[in-house]
Structures are given as C-alpha cells and as structure tokens.
C-alpha cells in the first residue's frame, strides 16, 4: 500500500482485525473470508462530495476497509457547476417530500452535467456503486457489462411523485437499489435491498479522546463548560430542524440552566447551507452558540462532553450523528423519523420525540438527572456495538456484491 514506509509504518489502513475486541474473533474471520472470496474484484463508488455529509463519512472509512481486506475499491466525485448542485439539492429535498418545479431547464442542466462527468469517468469496473440522485443518470452513458448498484441514502418515506416518475427510468437501468430502511421501498422493477449505515469507531470523529483533549478543543472555540452542554451536530439543512432545536432549548431554559451548541458544516454539494447557517446565527445569545466548523475533533469533543445530544430531524435517511453520540455513551434525543427510529429505542437507550415541546421536556429531564443519562448512555453504546459498527456494513456489502458473482 502506498504511503507505508517499510521500516517505520506511518499510516495504515483501518482493517477488520482492528474490531476484534468489539465484535469477536469469529466475526472477524467470517468477514475476512467473505472478502477473500471477492479479492479479485475492482469496485468503484461515485458520489457528489468528498466532505460534509454522512455519505462522504461512510465512503471515507468503508473504501479504506475494503482495500485493507484486499478488494480494490475506488471513490470518485462528480464535478458540477453551482446551477447543477442547486438543481440536485432541489431534487434531494423533493425526494424527501418537498414540491419541485421540474422545468426543462433543470432537467437539461442535470442530464448534461452528468453526461459530461460520464465522458471523463471511464467506469468499466467489476461493480459500480452510484450514490444518491446527483450522479444517478451516469448509467445511461455506458454499455453496461457489470453490476451497477444505486445506493440512495435519503429518507424515502414520501418522495415527490413527479420527480420519482422522472428519475425511475434511470433507476430501473440499475441491477439493484440499496436504501437504508425497508420502509423506503418503492414501486420499481429493480430489486431493492436495505442496508443501514454504520460508524467507524476509530475515525477522527469517533476515536477516544482524553478529558484534557476535550477541554482543549472546547476552549479553542470559547465554548463555556460551566453549565451542562446541549448539542446538535448537523449539516446546516432545514431537515435537521435547527430552529426547532433552538425553540425546544428556550422552553427548557425556563426550568434548567444549560448552554446550547449548534455545530455544523456545509457540504460542497449543498448550496442551501449558507442561508440556513445565517438564519440560525440570528438566534445566537449568550447561552446559544452557533458554530460553522470543519473540525471533526470538535464534533467528537462535543458529542463526548454533552449532557444531551439532540438530532431533532424532520426527515433523516439514517442519521450517523445519532450513532456517533450513542457510541460515546451520551444520551440522545432524536426526532421520531426515518433511520433515527432504528437507532433509538425510546426510554431504553435515548428518547424519540415528535414535537418541540416533547424535546424540551426531555432536555429538562436529562439535564436534571445524571443517573438517567448514564443509564441511557450505557445502553446506547451497547446498541451501537451490536448493530452500527462499520464491520456490519462491510459484511452486508460483501454479501450483496457476492450475490452478483455467484
Ligand atoms: N459532521 C461533521 N461536522 C459537522 C457536521 C457534521 O463532521 O459540522 C459529520 C457528522 O459527524 C456525521 C456526518 O457529518 O458523520 C453527517 O451524517 P448524517 O448521517 O448525520 O447526516 P447527513 O449530513 O448525511 O444528512
């Protein structure tokens, strides 16, 4: 592997063996033997950003684990002008239920930019995995000789029917569609599979941190630690409901003293992020802090130090931030939507909420009761260890890819 000095290894790929203490030696052997059976394959992933959302987070870890296990796995990102990403963000929103005005101009921008990317990409791999709607029509431009899989990460509870009718002919050229949850299944001729995402416990967002390291990160951003921290970590996106978080926090503040920190980023394929960020900045107060930071160690520190982490989404394909905080033994309050419902079992390892008022009362209860936080947090970490570690995701992909090789 490039980047390793034989004498003194500086970098190494994250491997399945690293998980032995977490998943046991039998699981490690089973997964590696499945990977071995696919060792001659050359896979490629295509998405629309290297940074800023859950898809990039998953790909950065999963592609390395695949390479470490001997499967050559690449990752390419499509390029596009701002009008392309503004169109695809509208599509993203419409797949999550918004209206969309699907004009001939929008279709032209979308299809033309994807065609131009197709001309540059030369996708002749053994398996091609295309993520989300942005690069979806790539498949039209190849004489397909191997399995192509469309991996949709969105909350598909209620996709806009007009957009679905437009995208379906592209989707139906694929050999399989993978969505996060069974309830996202659509009317399609293509076989559908369901694989929930997972977290890499050794990544910079999730790796262990000492108290001193946490203090240092929080101090660096002048985050006060004199009161309990209530935190939401999310892209600046309306579906994450940052305004709802602020409203819930203000109600809770009538009964408890705490500091709210909203930390987020703007993915390169998300042109609406800046506007959402500016709108919530207007809500800043002494005890309501809004930070736009490209700092995974800060995310890690906040998820660890928080008394309560919120993920009050209104739509959520899966919601990696939920498992990330749960892994750190932190009590999480999640919106009762999409993939969050598969991670949090209400009252056992966190809380699910349907309204601002419910979120507020759960914030109050958790801030007031350290024992409750501890009980939920301990159960949360165990849930993630059992269900949401990267090795489980890797194995499900191996099974799916293996099914095409049979
Ligand atoms: N994230 C981050 N910095 C931020 C906000 C988010 O590194 O300021 C990471 C977060 O830790 C998580 C991912 O981005 O790994 C977001 O994934 P999620 O599935 O929660 O939501 P998405 O952005 O894909 O809708």
Structure description:
The two termini are 29 Å apart. The chain is built from 15 helices and twelve strands. Helix 6 links the parallel strand 4 and strand 5. Helix content is 43%, strand content 14%. It is an alpha/beta fold and 406 residues long. The site of uridine-5'-diphosphate (UDP) has 19 residues, from helix 3, strand 8, helix 10 and helix 11.
Bound molecules: uridine-5'-diphosphate
Sequence of secondary-structure elements: HHEHEHHEEHEEHEHEHEHEHEHEHHH
SS-based class: alpha/beta
Overall pLDDT metric: 96
In percent, how much strand structure appears in the residues? Answer: 5-15%
- Shape, please? globular
For the terminal residues, how far apart are their CA atoms?
29 Å
- Summed up, the helix count is 15
**Largest sheet report:** 6 strands, parallel
Roughly how many Å is the radius of gyration? Answer: 21 Å
Major sheet: order of its strands?
2-1-3-4-5-6
Q: Give the low-confidence spans.
A: none
Please bin the fraction of helical residues: 40-55%
Number of beta strands: 12
Structural key phrases:
406 residues, 12 strands, six-stranded parallel β-sheet, 43% helix, alpha/beta
Short characterization:
The protein is built from 15 helices and 12 strands. By secondary structure, it is of the alpha/beta class. Helix 7 crosses helix 10 and helix 11 crosses helix 14.
């Amino acid at each position: 592997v490039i980047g390793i000095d034989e004498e003194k290894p500086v970098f190494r790929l994250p491997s399945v063996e690293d998980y032995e203490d977490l998943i046991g030696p039998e699981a490690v052997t089973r997964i590696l033997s499945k990977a071995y059976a696919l060792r001659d394959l050359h896979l490629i992933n295509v998405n629309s950003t290297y940074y800023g959302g859950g898809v990039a987070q998953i790909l950065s870890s999963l592609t390395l684990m695949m390479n470490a296990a001997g499967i050559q796995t690449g990752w390419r990102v499509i390029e596009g002008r701002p009008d392309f990403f503004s169109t695809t963000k509208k599509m993203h929103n419409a797949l999550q239920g918004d209206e969309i005005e699907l004009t001939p101009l929008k279709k032209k921008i979308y299809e033309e930019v994807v065609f131009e990317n197709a001309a540059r990409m030369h996708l002749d791999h053994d398996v091609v995995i295309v993520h989300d709607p942005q690069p979806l029509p790539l498949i039209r431009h190849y004489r397909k000789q191997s399995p192509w899989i469309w991996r949709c990460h969105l909350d598909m509870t209620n996709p806009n029917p007009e957009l679905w009718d437009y995208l379906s002919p592209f989707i139906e050229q694929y050999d399989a569609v993978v969505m996060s949850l069974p309830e996202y299944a659509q009317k399609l001729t293509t076989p559908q599979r369901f694989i929930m995402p997972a977290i890499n416990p050794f990544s910079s967002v999730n790796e262990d941190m000492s108290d001193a390291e946490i203090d240092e990160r929080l101090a660096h951003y002048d985050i006060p630690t004199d009161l309990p921290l209530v935190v939401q970590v999310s892209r600046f996106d309306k579906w994450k409901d940052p305004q709802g978080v602020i409203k819930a926090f203000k109600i809770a503040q009538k009964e408890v003293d705490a500091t709210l920190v909203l930390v987020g980023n703007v993915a390169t394929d998300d042109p609406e992020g800046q506007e959402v960020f500016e709108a919530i900045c207007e809500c800043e107060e002494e005890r309501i802090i809004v930070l736009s930071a490209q700092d995974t160690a800060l995310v890690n520190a906040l998820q660890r130090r928080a008394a309560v982490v919120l993920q009050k989404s209104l739509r959520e394909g899966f919601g990696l931030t939920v498992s990330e905080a749960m892994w750190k033994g932190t009590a999480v309050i999640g919106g009762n939507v999409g993939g969050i419902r598969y991670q949090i079992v209400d009252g056992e390892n966190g809380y699910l909420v349907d309204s601002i008022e419910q979120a507020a009362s759960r914030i109050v209860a958790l801030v007031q009761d350290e024992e409750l936080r501890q009980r939920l947090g301990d159960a949360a970490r165990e849930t993630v260890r059992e269900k949401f570690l990267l090795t489980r995701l890797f194995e499900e992909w191996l099974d799916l890819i293996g099914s095409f090789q049979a």
